[in-house]
Amino acid sequence: MKTKLIAMALGALGTLASFQTAAHHSFAAEFDANSPVHVTGTVVKVDWTNPHTYFMLEVENEDGSYDEWAFEMGSPNGLMRRGWKRDTLKIGTEVIVRGTQARDGSFKGNVQTVVIADTCQRLFAGTSQRDFNENDSPKEDCEL
Amino acid sequence: MFELKYSALVKPAFLAMAISTALTTSMVKAQDEDAPSTPTPRLPDGTVDLGGNGVWSLPWITNFAARMPDYQEGDQPPMRPWTAAMWEYNKSNNVKYDPEGFCLPPGGPRSMGTPYPAEIIQDRDRIVIIFEGGGHVWREIHMDGRPHPEDPNPTYFGHSVGHWEGDTLVVDTVGFNEKTWIDFGGYMHTDQLHTVERISRPDKETLHYEAVIDDPGAYFEPWTVSWDIRWSENQELQDYICQENNKFLLDMMDDYGQPFFQKTEGL
Questions:
Q1: Which ranges constitute the DSSP H helices of B52-160?
Q2: Which of A63, B58, B157, B166 is the most exposed place for a label (fewest CB within 10 A)?
């Protein structure tokens, strides 16, 4: 499995002024808008809970070791309005995640988009982060 | 449907579709300007119907100041010094102590500008607003002409009485507790808060919401906010139980670097 962790120096994620969807708590209190995350890994657990859903992602490092990330998405009601089901993300699926890392620097992130590696299907995570421009191509994610 | 599903192969088709959608949208818009909007729905007795087969898509209003009339960048409500100091403090810690982040109810006018939709249910002697968000809460507006209690016990939503002025529902509320904020950005209030909300439905698709925030304990004078709320036909409220798994709180640190809950010292 080809995996990569890219700490992008993009300023794009820094502009979170337009809240398109909802969060019940302060995004900025928990996550660092200047620490974007872009990782590929395998889903090992899904928590379909309020006020946020989570999935755990096993990410392989260059040296063959693994990190387990906890990724936060929107609440089930918000995700269902975006077409998600509780089993949209299945255990064992390889996905590419874009999001933002927690302020404390732990392997915890808030998700912006999830791309299913096999199909290049992109899912928006229903968080308060800006949705990607619909004209952005998910191909870039797939070719990681 | 997912927001977007396409591969490189269907991308040209998608673009063509997007262009045709854009054209159609602009044509519809042009027609809209000429055609009258869908009339305000009414109950059999002529009263404005605030419901129907759908829900109100509440906007997420994070900064109430920006909803004041003639707002310009940087304008603030007329805060007393302590309110201004608390606002600065709340801002300095990224509003981490926002009660709604604790899954507590938004209370007051904030409930009409908090994530997730709402329904307004008109009963004979009362109007009930049910909220999907804000902890899955509701508020009740007495329409039977009763006065406020002499000395109400403070609550998250206070005591509301309403009446119709023409086609506008006017709701007067007192008896708030001090456990909520005015908005996400950290404007606070006291239990002297008194709100007067004016709710109208100029057409089927629009709810116009206005609130006077009158709290001499926190503000030098009353200030007004307003916004429009869009109707979402055929939508339904869903389940949202914020209290279930609020990891935000479990991980939160206080100002001294101690876990907000499960403190290890200084209790």
A1: 81-92
A2: A63
Indicate yes or no: CB of A29 within 8 angstroms of CB of B95.
yes
Is the CB of B93 inside 8 Å of chain A's CB atoms? Answer: yes
CA distance B113 to B61: 5
Helix residue ranges, H only, A42-106: 76-81
Residue of B nearest to A24 (CA): B101
**Å from A124 to nearest chain B CA?**
7
B241 at interface of A, judged by CB pairs closer than 8 A: yes
What Rg do the C-alpha atoms of chain B give, in angstroms?
22
Task: Tell me the one-letter amino acid at A99.
Answer: G
A140 CB-contact burial (10 Å; exposed 0-12 / middle 13-18 / buried 19+):
exposed
Taking the model in full, what pTM does it have? Answer: 0.78
Q: Across the strands, what pairs with A70?
A: A56, A108
What pLDDT is attached to residue B7? 34
The CATH T-level fold of domain A21-131 is: OB fold (Dihydrolipoamide Acetyltransferase, E2P) (2.40.50)
AA identity, residue A67: D
- Which tokens belong to B258? 């101690």
Chain A residue numbers with beta carbons less than 8 Å from the beta carbon of B243 are 50
Judged against a pLDDT cut of 50, whether residue B31 lies above it is answered with no
| Structure-token pair, residue A104 | 């404390």
pLDDT-based confidence at A16, cuts 50/70/90? very low
User: Tokens representing B9?
Assistant: 């192969």
Cis amide prior to A51 (ω within 30 degrees) = yes
Q: How far is B90 from chain A (nearest CA, A)?
A: 11
Q: Is the ipTM of this complex over 0.90?
A: no
Q: How far is CA B33 from the centre of its chain?
A: 28
Using one digit for the tens of pLDDT, what is the confidence trace for A82-127? 888 999 999 999 999 999 999 889 999 999 889 999 888 888 777 7
Q: Which residues of chain A lie closer than 8 angstroms to B98, CB-CB?
A: 25-26
